[in-house]
Every structure is written in structure tokens, then in C-alpha cells.
């Protein structure tokens, strides 16, 4: 069962100061290893049956986002928020962009997940519940 992945990559850049700043928030920073938190999030879904990946960010970060995804071998749909309205509005904007009757996995771009295998297994278990009409 394929899913549409939505990655939320907004943020003000104030929570991990002085590393992050308004024009360089934490999701774009390489905190561990050689990839940014956003790049690790994209990589995390690589073993799933992904129909599409959409990244929601604010328009101020569009060039930074494009730079972060340019070397990835994954097509990404960039959704720019016209103004900051927090998580629910960003998810709604992505859902409207993806379309009706799609299975959507919403991820934050700044979470650390140690095991990609456990993450993949957990998402696949959730997909089985979706097939049974459950909301996960």
C-alpha cells in the first residue's frame, strides 16, 4: 500500500540557538553525521512504498530547502506556506495538495529516529491497520 509522505519543515529557528537562526532553522542543520535533520527524515522513508513526498515550509526557506534536496535521488513536491499558521494548517495545506483518498504519513523534519528499520516496521504495521479502516 503506497503512502503520500508529508514532511513539515517550518519553524522559526529559535529553539536550538545559537546553532539555528531565523534564516537557518534546526531542520537544515547537520547535527549528527553528514546529513541534516531534514535529509535524514527523507532518507528514513526510503524503505516504504512511497507514492509521493511533499515538504511544507515557509517561503523564506525555499532556497535553503532546494539546496538541501538537490542531491537526493528522490522527487520532492515543495509546498510553500503563504504565511505561518502552525502545524494543523500546514497539514491541511499538504492534504489539499495531495488530493482525496490518499494515505498520508505526516513527519516532522526535526525529529531524531535512531533505527530506520524499526521506523519502517512501525509504519508498515500502521498501514495494516489503515487497511482495516482504522485511523493511525
SSE blueprint and pairings:
Blueprint: E1 3-8, H1 37-44, E2 50-58, H2 62-69, E3 77-81, H3 86-98, E4 104-108, H4 116-131
Parallel strand pairs: 1-2, 1-4, 2-3
Explain what the structure shows.
The chain is α/β, with parallel strands linked by helices and 136 residues long. Helices cover 33% and strands 18% of the residues. The protein is built from 4 helices and 4 strands. It has helices at 37-44, 62-69, 86-98, 116-131, and strands at 3-8, 50-58, 77-81, 104-108.
Task: Summarize this structure briefly.
The protein has 136 residues and is of the alpha/beta class. It contains four helices and four strands; from the N terminus they run E-H-E-H-E-H-E-H. Helices cover 33% and strands 18% of the residues.
Radius of gyration: 15 Å
The biggest beta sheet is recorded as: 4 strands, parallel
In order across it, which strands form the biggest sheet?
3-2-1-4
Please state the oligomeric state of the protein chains shown.
single chain
What is the global morphology? globular
Count every helix, treating DSSP H or I runs of 4 or more residues as helices. 4
| Beta-strand percentage range | 15-25%
Report the end-to-end length measured between terminal Cα atoms. 15 Å
Poorly predicted spans: none
Question: Using DSSP, what is the number of strands?
Answer: 4
- The H/E string reads EHEHEHEH
Mean pLDDT: 86
Structure class:
alpha/beta
| Helix content percent band | 25-40%
Question: What are its keywords?
Answer:
single chain
Amino acid at each position: 500500500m503506497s503512502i503520500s509522505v508529508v514532511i513539515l519543515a517550518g519553524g522559526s529557528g529559535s529553539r536550538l540557538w545559537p546553532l539555528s537562526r531565523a534564516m537557518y532553522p534546526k531542520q537544515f542543520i547537520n547535527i549528527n553525521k553528514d546529513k541534516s535533520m531534514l535529509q535524514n527524515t527523507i532518507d528514513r522513508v526510503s524503505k516504504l512504498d512511497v507514492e509521493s513526498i511533499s515538504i511544507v515550509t515557509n517561503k523564506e526557506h525555499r532556497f535553503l530547502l532546494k539546496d538541501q534536496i538537490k542531491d537526493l535521488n528522490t522527487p520532492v513536491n515543495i509546498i510553500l506556506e503563504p504565511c505561518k499558521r502552525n502545524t494543523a494548517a500546514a497539514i491541511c495545506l499538504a492534504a489539499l495538495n495531495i488530493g482525496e483518498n490518499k494515505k498520508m504519513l505526516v513527519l516532522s523534519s526535526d525529529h531524531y529516529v535512531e533505527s530506520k528499520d524499526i521506523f519502517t516496521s512501525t509504519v508498515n504495521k500502521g498501514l495494516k491497520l489503515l487497511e482495516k479502516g482504522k485511523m493511525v
